[in-house]
Amino acid sequence: MPIKVPDLLPAKSKLQEENIFVMDESRAFTQDIRPLKILILNLMPLKQQTETHLLRLLGNSPLQLEVGLLHTSTHTSRNTSAEHLKQFYKSINDVKANRYDGLIITGAPIEKLPYEEVTYWEELSEIMEWSKTNVTSTLHICWGAMAGLYYHFGIDKYIMDDKLSGIYTHYLTDPQEKLLSGFDEEFVVPHSRNADIRKTDINKVPELKILSESEQAGVYIVASTDGKQIFITGHPEYDAYTLQKEYDRDIEAGLKPRIPVNYYPNNDPAKTPKLRWRTHSNMLISNWLNYYVYQETPYKL
After folding, report:
1. Of 118, 169, 183, 293, whose CA is between 20 and 30 Å from 72?
2. How many domains does the chain have?
3. 137 labelled as ligand-binding?
4. Binding residue per annotation — 27?
5. Range of the domain at 8
């Protein structure tokens, strides 16, 4: 089934080139189907790139989705034009009276900042509080997961000595969990972050359970026992070249980054990286949409 997006959203043409079924607003208007209403709070600086990443995964679902884009109005984006934001994005004040089947909160490259020093922390806190009553289930990604664990459960992050960047092997800690349905016992996921959350802190909270871990990358998937909050510490939405772009950017910035682990063939940045996590990423999003959103959301929001 298709995802419904605004007619002129730039990501639409890119996804159509990949044969992902995208329906624009004009065509969707003629269909008598109640699509799931999914809202994406996009905190990443390169918003159009993240739009494509997430819509690609959402478009693989057999469910019909109506996707809206949200940004923080208390932060001025330096990497996305004001025209793009005005045309395609809303703020919390625009949507606070609405209800949604699902919400995705993306990461942001600000792990080293204390949460309270983030310029939009107050607004993000408002959005996360609003989500508790207006959203069936929320999926948090990378820094979004750290921020969510801190806001909802008081679990703080820890800054790492070196950036965690690369493709890491993960395993299941609760194979019977619906979110993990169909997963291989081992699978790989991209990570790109400067902070971590600790298993010991999570285990102290009875409302949380760890579903997947990595020996090198640590805790990966955490879920609340009621399924309303899902926390993903990695970046399953990344495409094959996202880590390369970040690596090149860090080199240009003079940060002397380490080569992303298990990313380039033979650890050689001159060679083309291969996409090895798409199956896991599609299954993760499809399971979330099916078991935690579609199966739980009311017919009338």
Report:
1. 293
2. 1
3. no
4. no
5. 3-240+276-294
